Amino acid sequence: MFSTSAITLLLAASAALGKPTPIPPRKCGTSMSPANISRAEIHFAVNKAVSTERIANNVNVYWHVISKDSTAAGGNVPDVQISNQIKQMNTDYAGNINWVLVNTSRTVNVDWFNNAGPSSTQETAIKNALRIGGKADLNVYSVGFTSGSGAGLLGYSTFPISYSPTSKEDGIVILFSSVPGGSTNGYNLGRTLTHESGHWLGLYHTFQGGCAGSGSTATTAGDFVADTPAEAGPASGCPSPVPDTCTGTAFPGADPIHNFMDYTQDSCMTGFTPGQFARMTTQFATYRT
Question: Taking every annotated instance into account, which residue ranges of this chain make up the domain Peptidase M43 pregnancy-associated plasma-A (predicted)?
Fold first, then answer.
C-alpha cells in the first residue's frame, strides 16, 4: 500500500514526465455488514410490496449546500451545477424515476464542511438541523470530506430499510466537487449522486459478496440482482479489456464495470440493468410509500 508521501511523489513524477495524473479509486462510504444484509433481505422478502414498472410519482429533492465560505471553491455549489446534477440524474434514471429539485438551502459552517462523515457528530447535527420532508423525499447534503470519518469519500447514503420516522438520518451526503462541472478529476460528471441514489433506493454494489455472493441463492447474485454478473471486487478507472473476475460462477459474464453501482470513474459508467430498476422500484414501494 502506498503511503501519502509516496502517492504525492508518484503524482509529481507523472506530471513532470507529461503523463496524465492517475485517477484515484472511487471511495463510497455506503456499507452494510453481511449479517445486516441477511436480516434486511429476509425482511424485504417477507414484506415486499407489489411494484409497478416505474416509480409513479416524482421524487422530491431537497439540496443542502454546506460550505466553509461563500466561494464555489469553498463548497458553495452554484445553482447551475445543482440544476445540471438533477438533469444528469434524470438522464441516468430515464423512464424509471423522475427527480425534482424542490428547494436549495445554503449553510456556511467550517466544521460541518470539513468533518461530516458516516456516524459523525457533524452528520447528526447537519441532518437534525436541515432535513425536510418524509420517507419518499431525498435530502442531499454537499460537503468537503476533508477530515474525520468522511475524509477522502465521494459520498455515502442510507438504505430504504433503515428509514425511521423518529430519526432524521435518511439521505445522501456527497462531495461538493463531484457534481457536473466540479473540480474532482475523474468524478465530476455527476455519477456520484447517481451511484449513491442507487443505494438510497435499495441497491448494493455490483461486487457485493465477491464471486461467492453474500447471501446468494439460485436466483440472486451477491447484490440480489440476477442480471448483474458476479464481480470479485470493485473496478477502478475504466479497465480495457473488460475483465471477467468470476468465471465459472452462477452469474457469469464480463465484470459490470459500466454499471452505476461499480467503482469506475464517471466517464466509464453508463447505466443500470432492468433487474436493478425492478429492485429499486420494489424497494421504494416497500419502504418509501
Answer: 188-282
